[in-house]
Design a protein that fits this description.
The complex is a heterodimer of chains A (318) and B (388). With 318 residues, chain A is of the alpha/beta class. Chain A contains 11 helices and 9 strands. In chain B, a hairpin with a 5-residue loop joins strand 16 and strand 17. The chains are: A alpha/beta (318), B alpha/beta (388).
């Protein structure tokens, strides 16, 4: 029922947005994801081509970066992507974390909107805030990592990297190893891979795996021992130990032996299987330092695909 | 450039890009504006989105500095100058290929500067928030952010003021452009803050700044000047604003000599010392506000001679340079648009000072600031304090 309310937010709920949010990969169907991957491929081929760069003028769109948790790489990647598209980038630097909560975040975004901002790229520690505020705003809300919940552009760049290397996603076997429970990267990957009938092996310390009743667990996922995951997979995706999300002391030493991608474990991998990692990595904690730049590693390809995928996402948003 | 007239030569300037504007400016007063070594500095430029700060950024970049643009986002709401300012600053930075950061200081500003402004009016003073904003926001939060988070060594601004280096250290001077002299607003800078500061516009006048903006085709080149208090919305007068915030507080307007009640007022915050207009009193001689007593909520008025004062007490002093001792002659300016006047300055305790003017001055106003300039040239800003 349409309410006639004094509250502008209530009325705004019914405004159909022209701009496209990207908050969760769950919200996208297979064709939408494929569309993003196609554009991602295009930008990945043209990343350094002068001809593809849109000239800058004063009237170009403005996107705002709001990073309430620090992340130099993701932010820089979004900034480079926006600038390559000719957009202006307004880097909003929060000085107190209360700004990321409910009303205050809404007010800040409304102000940015009235200043002419067309999209807001947000990293926050609050898990469901973006779903709350996005429908109230005309600007596009892009999730750059929300708590332990989701990190959709990372998920997209990971599957883009896999698709480029293997030529397909269907039927691919992907092992995700480590702190899956606290990893928004793992969440987004599990969701994305599920849409393409890929098989996902989950391995890691029992207390860091999602519980069986978690909505992430589905027919395409399977909890397995680490060595099994490494042997069976086409892609071995190692996750960073999320020290800031939970109190873990002196885990690091045993962690590498039990769950890390050591030389020995690497040798268990199939000859065609590739290593991935969302970075930043703790060398010697979850991955042997030398393997990062190994010919069988796609880690640096992931980084450059980050810019390409974010260009596709920003393009779609506006 | 002749270095003979100057008391010192700033050697770091040798590293400026040879053909840049900054490297070729000849100061007419012979005082060389201090600039750090571009090879060893990273300068955060405080940008309001206006012409002055945009040209400051342009000049530094052109002279070979590693620069980053920063804007303090201090207030928000529809149509605030701050909002447009942030966007214009972003656009200028993009135009020049410079990184930009908008620092959210809305909370600091609301809980510091705006709160202080309201309290000061409630106490019968006439505050000047821009000086506190310089001290606490621009050279406070913004400077610390630049040093800690952006790896900057200096903060530059589009203020018209000059820093001169000699064997005793750094001194703050009035700029070339007398009409735009903003040194009065900067008396609160400590020597530490000054040593991390750059004023690229020191040796330029406003028309030259506009000319540079046009030549560089900066998108803000023809933007109008901003005036007034930035957090009072456009179209709202200062007294509308205060009435809204502090509420109506009716009281008496009293003749200071006779104690006779001449009329009523709706709030003492509508008045300032020396005010003549808007009193709404018919009287044979022109009357001026001579005192505001917040305790009894009374505005005292009197004839012009009652406005004259010869001594001023001031608190929370800051001395940029203390080579003059504790009791010295100087030129003292008691408000933004008044002329510096000869006076004897005595430092009292650790934080206060007393000024005795040689000739009486008009309307010494609590809440305003006094700035102290050297007696000989009147060009060097020695320090200042808040009039109480």
């Amino acid at each position: 029922m349409l309410k006639t309310s004094e509250d502008p937010k209530q009325e705004k709920c019914f405004v159909k947005k022209k701009r496209k949010d990207l908050i969760s990969l769950k919200d996208l169907n297979v064709n939408e994801i494929l569309g993003l991957l196609e554009r991602g491929d295009y930008w990945s081929d043209h990343l350094n081509s002068r001809f593809s760069i849109i000239p800058r003028t004063v009237d170009n769109p403005i996107v705002s970066n709001l990073f309430f948790e620090s992340s130099t790489r993701t932010r820089f990647s979004f900034e480079v992507a926006a600038k390559k598209l000719g957009f202006h980038v307004l880097n909003f630097e929060p000085q107190n974390s209360s700004v990321q909560k409910g009303e205050t975040l809404y007010d800040t975004l409304r102000t940015l909107e009235s200043m002419g901002t067309n999209a807001a790229i947000i990293r926050t520690s609050e898990e469901n805030i973006l779903q709350e505020v996005a429908p109230l705003l005309e600007l596009a809300v892009i999730n750059a990592g929300a708590g332990a919940n989701e990190h959709p552009t990372q998920g997209l760049l990971d599957i883009l990297t896999m698709r480029q290397h293997f030529g397909k996603l269907n039927g691919l076997k992907v092992a995700i190893i480590g702190d899956i429970k606290h990893s928004r990267v793992a969440n987004s990957n599990i969701i994305a891979l599920g849409k393409f009938d890929a098989k996902v092996f989950l391995a890691g310390p029992e207390n860091l795996l999602p519980s069986d009743d978690s909505e992430l667990i589905g027919p395409h996922t399977q909890k397995v021992p680490v060595d099994y995951a490494v042997q069976e997979a086409d892609v071995v995706m190692m996750l960073r130990l999320q020290r800031e999300r939970h109190a873990l002391s002196n885990v690091a030493d045993n962690y590498f032996r039990d769950y890390g991608l050591s030389r020995e474990r690497f040798n268990l991998m199939q000859n065609h299987a590739m290593i991935m990692h969302p970075a930043p990595f703790n060398r010697g904690v979850e991955i042997d330092g030398d393997l990062v730049e190994h010919p069988r590693s796609l880690i640096y390809k992931q980084v450059s695909n980050g810019v390409a995928v974010r260009m596709a996402v920003l393009e779609r948003a506006l | 450039m002749s270095a003979t007239n100057t008391n010192t030569f700033n050697r770091e300037r040798l590293y400026l890009q040879e053909n840049s504007i900054l490297a070729n400016l000849k100061p007419s007063d012979g005082k060389i504006n201090f600039l750090p070594n571009p090879k060893k500095s990273k300068i955060a430029v405080a940008m309001s989105g206006g012409v002055d700060s945009s040209v400051a950024l342009y000049l530094l970049k052109e002279a070979g500095y590693d620069v980053v643009g920063i804007t303090a986002w201090i207030i928000s709401g529809s149509g605030r100058c701050c909002d447009n300012g942030v966007v214009d600053a972003v656009k200028v930075c993009d135009q020049l290929g410079v990184e930009h950061h908008a620092i959210d200081l809305r909370k600091d500003f609301a809980e510091g500067i705006i709160k202080e402004f309201h309290e000061s009016y409630a106490q019968g003073e006439t505050p000047i928030p821009c000086i506190s904003c310089n001290n606490d926001i621009k050279w406070g939060s913004l400077l610390s952010y630049s040093l800690a988070k952006l790896g900057a060594t200096h903060l530059a601004s589009g203020h018209y003021a000059k820093i001169v280096q000699d064997e005793n250290g750094l001194h703050l001077y009035r700029p070339l452009e007398e009409n735009k002299d903003q040194s009065y607003m900067l008396w609160g800078l400590t020597p530490q803050q000054l040593s991390a500061t750059v004023f690229p516009l020191a040796d330029l006048d406003k028309s030259e700044v506009r000319k540079i903006a046009n030549l560089a085709e900066l998108c803000v080149a023809s933007k109008p000047e901003s005036q007034d208090i930035c957090f009072v919305s456009n179209g709202m007068t200062n007294s509308d604003y205060l009435l809204k915030i502090l509420g109506e507080k009716p009281g008496d307007i009293v003749e200071t000599d006779t104690g006779k009640i001449l009329g009523k007022h709706k709030g003492s915050f509508n008045y300032t010392y020396g005010q003549r207009k808007g009193l709404g009193i018919a009287h044979p001689e022109p009357l001026y506000v001579v005192k505001i007593d917040s305790k009894s909520n009374t505005v005292f008025v009197g004839t012009k001679n009652k406005l004259a004062g010869q001594t001023a007490k001031a608190k929370n002093r800051n001395l940029i340079n203390d080579y003059l001792g504790v009791d010295f002659k100087a030129l003292v300016k008691i408000r933004y648009n008044s002329d510096p006047t000869p006076a004897q300055v005595k430092l009292i305790g650790d934080h206060e000072l007393e000024v005795e003017f040689y000739e009486p001055v008009t309307a010494i106003t609590p809440g305003q600031a006094l700035a102290i300039y050297d007696l000989e040239s009147g060009l060097e800003l020695i320090g200042g304090a808040w009039i109480c």
